[in-house]
Amino acid sequence: DAGVIQSPRHEVTEMGQEVTLRCKPISGHDYLFWYRQTMMRGLELLIYFNNNVPIDDSGMPEDRFSAKMPNASFSTLKIQPSEPRDSAVYFCASSPRGGPVYYEQYFGPGTRLTVT
Amino acid sequence: AQSVTQPDIHITVSEGASLELRCNYSYGATPYLFWYVQSPGQGLQLLLKYFSGDTLVQGIKGFEAEFKRSQSSFNLRKPSVHWSDAAEYFCAVAPISGGSYIPTFGRGTSLIVHP
Predict the structure, then answer these.
(1) In this predicted model, what pLDDT tens digit does every residue of B70-92 receive, in sequence order?
(2) Beta carbons of B101 and A102 less than 8 Å apart
(3) I need a labelling partner for A49 at 20 to 30 A (CA). Which of A99, B15, B52, B81 fits?
(4) Average pLDDT of B31-59?
């Protein structure tokens, strides 16, 4: 398997622009997670999905952030409008279903977002 | 709610020396415990995990971790560090019950390896 795929790997945009980050989870995994990593706050869970349904979005910083999972093989994280404080590395991770194995997360390589 | 503390932000060791990275957790019961490694520019990769049974857990890349219930700790160890082990290491805990099984990650420990 190719693992979790994220695109783009790097994104530089200007303040106020819309940014869309993409993720393809590992086939057969039922859970998908979006994380944000910064020096100041470490690794933060933004939102996670189970079977394409958002379960907990309490980590989404504000209404400028939205996430969707239209099918089992694709998810997006959108920021509109973007701000410089959104600059971070965004990770997507997926987990298989059931039992303790569920807790093992497989991370993508991340998208480094820079908002100027 | 569970929490994870990694007391050391940075650890510097010489290549070939032994390593121990500390992790303490706060939780009402024994949680599930994990160590992940993040190499520069990469995502996190699972090193090892503890669910139950033997408190000494073997992982990939020669790492091991020991769960000590009395100390609420899950320290990561390696007997001889290689230069390629330089990376960021994250401890994580996940509750066994309660409906939300989402792991909480520590802030990470950056490992620097001197030749």
Answers:
(1) 999 999 999 999 999 999 999 99
(2) yes
(3) B52
(4) 92
